[in-house]
Each structure stands twice: as structure tokens, then as C-alpha cells.
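Homework help board

Subject: predicted structure for assignment chain

Our instructor gave us this sequence and asked us to write out the predicted structure in C-alpha cell form, then describe one feature. I got the C-alpha cells but I'm not sure how to describe them. Can anyone check?
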Amino acid sequence: MPSDSPITWEALAAIVAALVAVGSGGWALLGALKKEFENTRRDSTAGRQRLYERMDAVLKEVRDSFIHRDVYHADMRRLDEALDERDRQINDLSGRINNGCPVGSASQGKS
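My C-alpha cell output:
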């Protein structure tokens, strides 16, 4: 090999070896990062799925345990109407009793 060449075969081999080492190290680092990102994404997806399942369970429990506001108001409205009807019937009956019950007038007349 001529001595006036700027680079020797040994230096070139060392540079190539260093480039290969850096490249393989970078490749390994890239693979490890990719694997870590995939694991994180999988864990995140699994965690999100567990959260959604829990939220669905809680919503179902609330739906099964409590009544909707509009159903409650409709039930209360029917109850008020039934109570009003009962009060009307009691008033009608008491009016008929006070105005013409033969038992009441007979006992009042004998006194």
C-alpha cells in the first residue's frame, strides 16, 4: 500500500466498524422504542376499554336503580289526579249525607 494515501485500510476498517456499531445500536434503540410505544398503546387501549366497561356498568346500575324525572313527574301527576278525584267523591258523599240522609234527619227530629 502506498504511504502517501490519506487513509489506511486499518483506519477505514475502524471507521466502518464504528458506523456499523452506531447503526446497529440505533437500530436496536429504534426497535426498543417501537416495542415500548406498542406496549404503551396496548396498555392504554386495555385501560380505556376497562374504563368504558366500568362506566357502562355504573350507567346500567343507575338506570336500573333510579327513575327518570319525566316518569316521576307523570307518576306524581297521576297520584295528584287520583287524590283530587277521591277528595271530590268524599265531598259529594258528605254533601249528600248532610243534605238528605234519612238517618241523620230522623235522629235530629226526635231530639
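Reply (TA_rk): Your C-alpha cells look well-formed. For the description, you could write something like this. The chain has three helices and no strands. That's the kind of observation they're looking for.
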